[in-house]
TrEMBL record:
Record InterPro entries: Arsenate_reductase (IPR006659), Arsenate_reductase-like (IPR006660), Thioredoxin-like_sf (IPR036249), Tscrpt_reg_Spx/MgsR (IPR006504)
Highest taxon above the source species: Bacteria
Alphabetic keyword roster: Oxidoreductase
Top-level taxonomy: Bacteria, Pseudomonadati, Bacteroidota, Flavobacteriia, Flavobacteriales
Organism: Halpernia humi
Protein name: Arsenate reductase
GO molecular function: arsenate reductase (glutaredoxin) activity
Family matches, as Pfam families: ArsC (PF03960)
Amino acid sequence: MIKILHNNSCSKSRTVLEYLDENDVKFEIIDFIENPLSKMEIQTVLKKLNCNPKKIIRFHDTEFQELNLNIDALSDEQIIDLLCEHPQLLQRPILIKGKIAMVGRPIENVKYFIGK
């Protein structure tokens, strides 16, 4: 079963859910806005994505701009703490299947991911 880190206000996230539903792919929704991820959960997702925390920050998000942060001055741990405090800054959707994960954009990548 695929787990989806989902933000309902995100059109890309909703599009992925629709695609999975239309193609009878079983999935579990994890609304990380309503239920923010713990530090350990974010670290686990990063490991499955095989990336550092900077890669999953939404730099163009209004809230990120309002925080006026120098992201290059922050450690990985500080970025993870930032994501715990401000979950809307997390890229979305993120699909998790076993030991691997991917950011669900573009939709063509999702099609490839679920086919594996």
